[in-house]
Design goal:
heterodimer, A: alpha+beta, Aldehyde Oxidoreductase, domain 4, 3 domains, 5-stranded mixed β-sheet, about 30% helix, B: alpha+beta, 5 strands, globular
């Protein structure tokens, strides 16, 4: 196995890596948020005088102290830093207590009294869409947040003429990201009037936008610094940003460094979750198992605020019917506001939900038609030059769905094992299941898509890399360094990276959508295409006859007749020539298109193809399900750091397995009951088997490095694969997550 | 006198310090930031340190229970020449580090395991370390790392 490179592994195994809570500054004080008992209420009134007079208290901040906008957001600017007169969810924050010590701040927070007039709460998206439902969003006339549609052909006629029609409702729950590090922010006011922010942010530029909106400051006056982040998975954007903004507000007002660390209970109460879906699907097949038509309607619970629900649901629309050929479809996805905790980005971003429905429908139809799960998928699979449901012709990259499905099935011996599945017979039930997907690379037509990097060769020949791709734990920076090293033909140890910040490099778009390696790598390639000619032009007279004879490999710069320079000699020569060996590179995503009215267009410039299969054992007496084996195959274009790709796949599978089997997020009447790991059970080491990962590398011509992405493809299909395996084992289907064997299996 | 030992250094506790949790004492009083606070209830294992050689959740251990005892944290396990402990190196080599928030606790938990079982099977590793949560890796490479670390320690 190729050895693993992590630029941050040494400090992490030594306990020296600094996460948000590990930063301390002279004179630093501590902030604590004040939540309220309410779910939905108005005429809010706050009594803060008692809290203010508590020992050590420096101030109690409320909406009245906010210098900029009271609300901000990525799409709709509706997420409050502090609530003003209306409470929309139990996660809302009314005030911030700041004291010399955290203990003092905690004690004083208890003394803040919040009163309000209770309003009827709306906690179900179906109820929220009724005409007489109370309207939750400010200034809107309904709770509809967004309505995306995909339509082509004549699905009504197609369904009427189908041999088999599967009609079913599927439901997926709130899911907590459960990053091991709770949100923390430290803001240091600088003597020059600037603000420095350290914190557990997914993307420093996103945090800076939130902070500057709330504080009414120019973007350039705040610097968000990157350092170790203890996991994010899409979850450290809006909430982590508002935590940073509250710390920044206090730091600005008090002119002291301020730390705001969320307890796990606060993090789980306040942070956004995976968007829960209710999906009604009606899907037709002909007698040979070919898809004929589909009509679907999905309600997505956005919770009290918008966050990225419209983007998440857009992906569910584009990829509404899995990686299959289908000419007749009408699919709708509606984002709906409720008084629940708000929801947004989470690894997979709308696909894990939709896949849970579609990938079970394929198996349900296969059962009716006497086909195997593999066979029905092969009959419908998108292949080279296929047209997707949005009218996009897949002709600009290798469409490898068939390859990943066959490879998975062969490795796990799917067909034989499927025949031997228990279907509810015998002592312990055995079953095998599979699921497949295609996943649009990067953000597609949902947002702007570009990124940047700089390469800066120093006087002594050392190489400084900066990229707008940020580390959340996934190994993004290590991948950037490996790409840079390979381009220059130097050992990766020669590449230096000095923790990018919002002041060191321009914004490269958010660290989302499994896009880091693709877009950051593309930017580095572009920078190299500019840097190398600069070096070649200046350096060639010493070692070659013309610039194009200069090449970069084996840790030296080579010309003709075995003449070469060390990087140190090259650095000196560049300096003496008064030419900067520096380049800025950018990656511009290839053109995509979208017609919102009909839901048609070239939604993403390329796709990742994936298939996972899983074997399970269901114990009908204990009513438990154990995973025995998992095989996962993903065509990610090119693996830059193969062991880390494996780690992404294994981690993604286990997260998806948690959503399928162990994680039962309890929210009752708008109040979250799963507030810590003892109440919200993410998978443990004994819950999962060793897994086999297979990386397929059809280099993507639209990615300058050939690489696509893996973060999200890894986790988006294991839940339906498990549901299919459980069905093969027990003969029963489960249409909502997490799968609750306890209620439904008859021993 | 309330004396404790942390990473082979002796400390005397003030009465205020006796009221702290071991985690807060390590992080706030000694600036040993390797142990992490992931849950505050002893469920996640990110705060794991060794107390007289046994793994404890430092977030649920009061300093009163530490008096007279010896604490070993991630900062104290390097070899005397400054080189990495074989288990630290194994976590790097096996690719077991992603976000790294669970890593110090995982390594300390694995040292507890190896003190009782120097050659654990993968199954035994999973059982012994099931109280340590990781959300990034899917655990497989952590099991690889502990296996690798154990074999290197045996061959030393």
């Amino acid at each position: 196995m190729k050895s693993c490179f992590r630029n941050d592994a040494m400090r992490k195994v030594c306990g020296e890596a600094k996460f948000g809570d590990d930063f301390r500054f002279h004179g630093m004080v501590h902030a604590v948020p004040v939540y309220t008992e309410y779910i939905h209420a108005e005429n809010l009134s706050l009594e803060i005088e008692d809290a203010r007079s508590m020992p050590g208290v420096l101030s109690v901040f409320t909406w009245e102290d906010v210098p900029g906008e009271l609300t901000a957001g990525q799409i709709n600017q509706d997420y409050p830093i502090f609530v003003k007169d209306r409470i929309r969810s139990n996660s809302d924050v009314a005030a911030l207590v700041v004291a010399e010590t955290r203990m003092q701040a905690l004690a004083a927070a208890e003394k803040v009294i919040v009163t309000a007039d209770v309003l009827a709460a709306v906690l179900d998206p179906e109820e929220a869409l009724k005409k007489d439902a109370p309207v939750i969003p400010e200034g809107k006339d309904s709770n509809l947040v967004n309505h995306h549609i995909v339509r082509t052909g004549d699905p009504d006629t197609a369904l009427a003429m189908s041999s088999v029609v599967i009609e079913q409702r599927f439901e997926t729950p709130f899911v907590e990201h459960a990053y091991l590090e709770p949100e923390c922010a430290v803001c240091v006011p600088r003597e020059d009037g600037g603000l420095e922010i350290y914190g557990s942010m997914q993307h420093p530029f996103s945090t800076r936008r939130f902070v500057c909106a709330y504080l009414g400051r120019p973007l350039a006056s705040v610097v968000c610094l990157s350092h170790a982040v203890g996991g994010s998975f899409g979850g450290k954007d809006d909430t982590a940003s508002v935590v940073c903004a509250r710390a920044a507000l206090a730091a600005l007002k008090l002119n002291r460094p301020v730390k705001l660390l969320l307890k796990r209970e606060w993090s789980m109460r306040e942070s956004y979750k995976r968007v829960p879906y209710k999906m009604d699907y009606k899907v037709g097949f002909d007698g040979d198992g070919h898809l004929t038509g589909a009509i679907s309607k999905t309600l997505a619970d956005s919770g009290a605020y918008t966050s990225t629900t419209p983007w998440s649901t857009w992906r569910s629309t584009v990829q509404n019917m899995g990686p299959y050929k289908l000419e007749n479809i009408r699919g709708e996805v509606l984002g709906v506001a409720t008084n629940n905790v708000f929801t947004g980005a989470f690894r997979g971003f709308g696909s894990p939900q939709t896949n849970f429905a579609v990938e079970q429908i394929m198996d349900m139809a296969a059962e009716k038609l006497g086909l195997t799960p593999l066979e029905i998928r092969k009959r419908n699979a998108l292949v080279q030059d296929s047209i997707t449901i949005t009218g996009q012709k897949l002709d600009n990259h290798t469409v490898s769905l068939m390859e990943v499905m066959e490879k998975t099935a062969e490795t796990i011996d799917f067909e034989r094992k499927y025949r031997n599945s228990s279907r509810g017979k015998g002592g312990k039930f055995y079953g095998i299941g599979m699921a497949a997907s295609y996943r649009g690379c990067s953000v597609g037509a949902e947002a702007m898509d570009f990124c940047c990097a700089t390469i800066n060769i120093q006087f002594d020949g050392s190489i400084l890399l900066d990229t707008a791709v940020f580390e959340n734990g996934q190994g993004a920076v290590s991948a950037m360094m490996l790409i840079c090293a390979e381009e220059l033909g130097v050992p990766v140890e020669s590449i230096h990276y000095q923790a990018s910040s919002t002041a060191s490099i321009p914004d490269g778009g958010t660290t989302v959508a499994s896009r880091g390696t693709l877009v950051g790598g593309g930017a580095i390639k572009d920078a190299m295409s500019k840097l190398k000619p600069i070096l070649q032009e200046i350096l060639y007279p010493e070692i070659a006859e013309s610039p194009d004879q200069v090449s970069f490999h084996d840790n030296r710069i080579w010309g003709t007749e075995e003449r070469s320079l060390t990087w140190s000699e090259a650095g000196h020569q560049m300096y003496l020539s008064r030419v900067y060996p520096f380049a800025f590179g950018s990656f511009q995503a290839p053109r995509v298109s979208w017609d919102e009215e009909n839901g048609q267009g070239n939604a993403y410039f390329s796709y990742v193809y994936s298939c996972q299969a899983v074997e399970v054992e269901v114990d009908p007496e204990k009513r438990s399900c154990r995973l025995l084996n998992v095989v996962a195959t993903h065509d990610i274009g090119k693996a830059i750091n193969p062991p880390m790709v494996e780690g992404q796949i294994q981690g993604g599978i286990v997260q998806g397995m948690g959503m399928a089997l162990t994680e039962d997020f309890k929210i009752e009447e708008g109040r979250i009951k799963s507030l810590n790991f003892s109440k919200y059970k993410i998978p443990r080491m004994t819950d999962v088997p060793d897994m086999l990962t297979q990386i397929v590398e059809n280099h993507d011509p639209l990615s300058p490095t050939g690489a696509k992405g893996i973060g999200e493809p890894a986790m988006e299909i294991i839940a339906p694969a498990i549901a299919n395996a459980v069905a093969a084992a027990t003969g029963e289907r489960f249409f909502s997550l997490p799968i609750k064997l306890k209620k439904e299996i008859q021993a | 006198m309330s004396e404790i030992t942390v990473n082979e250094k002796k400390y005397t506790l003030s009465s205020e310090q006796e009221e702290l949790t071991l985690l807060d004492y390590l992080r706030e009083e000694l600036n040993l930031i390797g142990a992490k606070n992931g849950c505050g209830e002893g469920t996640c294992g990110a705060c794991t340190v060794l107390l007289d050689g046994k793994a404890v959740r430092s977030c649920r251990t009061s300093m009163k229970k530490v008096i007279g005892k010896s604490v070993l944290t991630i900062e104290g396990i390097k070899n005397n020449d400054g080189s990495l402990h074989p288990m630290q190196q194994a976590f790097i080599d096996a690719g077991a580090v992603q976000c790294g928030f669970c890593t110090p606790g995982m390594i300390m938990q694995s040292m507890d395991l190896l003190s009782r079982n120097s050659n654990p099977s993968r199954e035994e590793i999973r059982k012994a370390m099931r109280g340590n949560l990781c959300r990034c890796t899917g655990y497989q490479k952590i099991v690889d790392a502990v296996e690798l670390g154990a074999s290197r320690l045996q061959n030393k």
